[in-house]
From TrEMBL:
Transmembrane segments: 175-197, 209-231, 238-257
Keywords: Membrane, Transmembrane, Transmembrane helix
Pfam families: DUF6594
Alphabetized InterPro entries for the sequence: DUF6594
Every DUF6594 domain range: 1-250
Protein name, per record: DUF6594 domain-containing protein
Superkingdom field: Eukaryota
């Protein structure tokens, strides 16, 4: 769902309408200055001015309509500016398709201007990991991988050996990515506890305490790194989660130490 933003045309339309308003504004200013010298009472009563001459009234209506159009263009431009930019993976995927397959029209060269492309899909939280997994699968391309990650309908549409295009099911890639993330999270939670358990059940000395502190430090750093890479958590959220994770490990060490004594 990648489409053009038409940023250049937006700027041209806004500048054109803005200059129309500037011209109307100048006309109104000149009219006010003339009336200030010749008939100042017309500037004090709208009703009297409309009854005497409708020029200012018609001018104000034209300014109103032009300003409404200008404000509408500004609103639309602001909304388009907040649209998501396509992930590099999605953009390159469409661009490769344009390179390998004939587009609808030979003049469809807009795909080569990435800065003018927007997407209607919200950004995926693990898009970089999706891209990494997809690139690995593409490098290890085989009949088995193609059978698992694409439906028969997709396999019949394009042969990657001939057309350079591989149509896959995003749901299956996302399922594999979710499985990888789950395994990483479980490993980060279980492995440090398993290591700390064997380090704390025996007699403690300065060397073993140093090892325990090192395990806590490395585990917390790994946990923070996973949060940074796999989620959109903000800095203060990562700090709070890392503190909670470290506190859980410290409490575990304390409880195991009491049990061993």
């Amino acid at each position: 769902m990648l489409y053009r933003r038409f940023g250049f045309l937006q700027a041209r339309l806004l500048l054109y309408k803005q200059d129309e308003l500037r011209e109307l504004e100048g006309t109104l200013d000149r009219l006010d200055k003339v009336d200030e010298k010749t008939r100042p009472d017309m500037l004090q009563s709208r009703e009297q001015d409309d009854a005497d001459d409708t020029f200012r009234k018609n001018l104000m209506h034209e300014i109103e309509e032009t300003f409404k159009e200008y404000a509408q263009l500004l609103t639309v431009a602001r909304d388009l500016a907040t649209f998501n930019r396509p992930p590099t993976r999605d953009y390159l995927s469409i661009r490769r398709y344009f390179d390998e397959q004939d587009p609808v029209s030979n003049m469809e060269s807009y795909i080569y201007h990435k800065e003018d492309i927007v997407t209607l899909k919200p950004g995926r939280e693990h898009s970089w990991l999706d891209s990494f997994v997809e690139s690995i699968l593409r490098r290890c391309d085989s009949k088995v991988i193609r059978y698992v990650f694409s439906t028969p309908e997709l396999r019949d549409k394009a042969d990657p050996k001939l057309a350079g295009v591989w149509l896959i099911q995003r749901e299956r890639i996302e399922l594999l990515v979710s499985l990888i993330i789950t395994i990483v999270i479980v490993a980060i939670l279980i492995v440090p506890i398993y290591i700390l358990f064997f380090l704390t059940i025996g007699p403690q000395n300065g060397h073993s305490i140093s090892i325990i502190i090192s395990v806590l430090l490395v585990s917390t750093l790994l946990f923070s790194g996973v949060l940074s890479l796999f989620t959109r958590a903000k800095r203060h959220e990562i700090l709070a989660a890392a503190a909670a994770y470290c506190a859980v490990l410290v409490v575990f060490i304390g409880n195991v130490g009491k049990l061993s004594t």
